Structures are given as C-alpha cells and as structure tokens.
Amino acid sequence: MKTKKVILYPLASAAAVAATSLFAVTPASAHGYVSNPPSRQAQCAQGIVSGCGDVVYEPQSVEAPKGSMQCNGGGRFPVLNDNGKGWRATSVGSSATFNWVLTARHSTSTWEYFIGGSRIAVFDDGGRQPGATVSHNVNFGGRTGRQTVLARWNIADTAMAFYACVDLQIGGSGGNPPPVTNPPPTTRPPTNPPPTTQPPSQGGTWRAGTAYSTGSTVTYGGATYRCRQAHTALAGWEPPNVPALWERV
Q1: Helix, strand, coil % (nearest 5) of the chain?
Q2: Which residues contact 47 (CB under 8 A, 6 or more apart)?
Q3: Cβ atoms 65, 160 nearer than 8 A
Q4: Alpha-carbon gap, residue 131 to 106, rounded angstroms
Q5: Tens digit of pLDDT for each residue in 107-155?
Q6: Considering just the CA atoms, what is the radius of gyration of the chain in Å?
C-alpha cells in the first residue's frame, strides 16, 4: 500500500500542475477590434487591403499576452506588423474617437493607446463588463503627420489582451472631408434642385461576413435596419442583437 501511495501522489501532483497550466493559457472568451477609424484588421476584413491571410475572417481575434507593442501582439497574424503593406491612413485632427466592436463582452481592466512606444491615453474600466461597442476620444498630444496608433484592450481576469493598429494622418480636417466649394451661381438657377445623394446601401438580407458602411440598410426577420456604424458583420451580431450597430427603420 505504501508503494502505491508513493506512486499515486506524484501522479496527482502532475495532474494538478497540468490543470493549472491549462487554465493559465486558456484564451479569454471575449473578442473585439477597432472598427473605426479602420484598424489594419478591419481594412483586411473589408477588402481595403488584400493578401492578409486568415485575419480577413477573424478581425476580432488578434489576441496575445498583455504587454506587447506589436500590431499582432506577437501572436497570430504577423501580416499586421508589415508597415509596407499599403495600409490606408485615415485623416483626423488633433484628436479622434476610436470605436471598438466587441463580439463578446469580457470584464476589462484598461484600454491603452500608444504612438511610437509612448502611451498617449489610458481608460480604466476597473474590471467592469463593457457594452457591445466602446468608444474613446484620444488626444494625440500635438503629434502630426503619418502615425500608427497601437490600441490595446487588457482583459481583467486573464493574462490576455486584444490588439489593433490604426494608421492615421494627423492634422487637417479632423476626419471629415473638406467643405465643397460651391460654384458661382448661374444667371438663371435651375427650377428644380439636384436630387440629394442617398447614403450607401447594400440592401438585401443581413449576412455575416459582409462589410457594411454607415447608412447601409438590410432586412432581417422581416424588418428593415439601418447601419449606425461601419463594421464587418459577424455571427452573433444580427441587427436585433446589437442596437449600437443597427437601428430599426
């Protein structure tokens, strides 16, 4: 009997260590990414940049241990670290609002924003559970020109974080297109004004995997919805489930 006990105790200890290790490396159940201004993974998912690999299907899954300063967190999707990939820079002013879309809401410690290795903003959630979308207004501290912002979502109860790099052209119109200069009035203006340009509309039935722009309309469950915020649809984001992304019309 003593021999059996000597054999069994190490086995039990090994099992306990294995179980502890398993829980330690289990990824967070939450997922999310910066949808606007379009992050690098958002640009891949929307087809703005091609040749991105699997991140096209999983823009919300750029997950890695906390503390990395890489666009992919040092984990999957190394293409996101390629500064020569042709990422489109969004024109913004001295500050900008970063909109996250979350496929699952996990308790959060902090949201951090970096430029060139320097942290320019932090938002402390104190372990609270966020909503389906999260927005932060970030001031760039006088920086101008082409910059890449690293956004990091730190999960409260795991060692993991989610990463998104956003390419910006800082300084100028603040993200809005410059005003259109009206031509000089004609001697006799037309009787009827030109028709108002309607917002873009994909139409049809809502479908996961489709990139929707603000103002797009879809049908789902016999109802019509209008897109509130540009994003790439994912399973679980059906219009009735995410009122932050869709409004019923």
Answers
A1: 20, 35, 50
A2: 211
A3: yes
A4: 9
A5: 999 999 999 999 999 999 999 999 889 999 999 999 999 999 999 999 9
A6: 23
Count each helix (H run) and each strand (E run) in the chain, helices first: 2, 14
d(CA 72, CA 70): 5
Helix (H) or strand (E) holding 8: helix 2-25
* Chain center to CA of 189: 46
Q: Residue 222 burial (CB < 10 Å; 0-12/13-18/19+)?
A: exposed
Q: How far is CA 13 from the centre of its chain?
A: 42
Q: What is the per-residue pLDDT across 11-45, written as a single tens digit (0 to 9) for each?
A: 444 444 343 333 333 344 448 999 999 999 999 99
Q: Which amino acid is at 201?
A: S
The token pair that represents 147 in the structure block: 């910059």
